[in-house]
Design a protein that fits this description.
This protein has about 170 residues and is of the alpha+beta class. It has 3 helices and 7 strands, in the order βααββββββα. The two termini are about 20 Å apart.
């Protein structure tokens, strides 16, 4: 991974993570699923059309359309992501929602606490806390991914706070 070179006056980036929701079906898999579903619906719909039950043909086509629409919405929501960057001066969390709207939070890293259940449970959260403010990060990740992220962020904070250990 190539680290960006900080501009004059900028602190070097000590930790940089972009968190994305998991989408287990690839675009190719989606195409295969839709082709199979469309093929089955076409065969069944044709059989019903031949025996005179023509409304069933249209309803099977509507089912395929609704499944396609549900997957399109799901893939659109995959644009959600969070970026967590640590410098010596700030931990910045930038959250971009599925519509492209962003929100940013900053924490002073020397007082930041990262908490997470270990071992993780389904409803475990990565919680960033500092000076009475709290923020949940990576809620869309699996419990194991949240734990890995929390451990990596804690390690980066420890390295930043204790430069003699590196």
């Amino acid at each position: 991974m190539i680290e960006p070179v900080p501009a004059a006056g900028e602190d070097p980036v000590l930790f940089d993570a972009v968190l994305h929701p998991n989408r287990s079906l690839s675009p190719r898999g989606f195409g295969i699923l839709m082709a199979c579903l469309g093929g089955v619906s076409l065969v069944l719909g044709s059989a019903f059309l031949m025996i005179g039950a023509w409304p069933v043909f249209g309803l099977l086509g509507l089912d395929v359309l609704l499944v396609w629409l549900a997957f399109r919405i799901n893939y659109g929501r995959a644009r959600l992501h969070e970026r967590v960057r640590l410098t010596e001066r700030a931990l910045t969390v930038q959250r971009i929602d599925h519509r492209g709207h962003g929100r940013t939070w900053q924490f002073q890293p020397h007082w930041l606490r990262v908490s997470m259940d270990d071992p993780p449970e389904h409803d475990s959260q990565v919680l960033l806390s500092s000076h009475g403010r709290h923020l949940v990060v990576g809620s869309f990740l699996s419990p194991e991914e949240r734990l890995d992220f929390a451990r990596a962020l804690r390690a980066a904070l420890d390295r930043m706070r204790s430069p003699l250990l590196t």
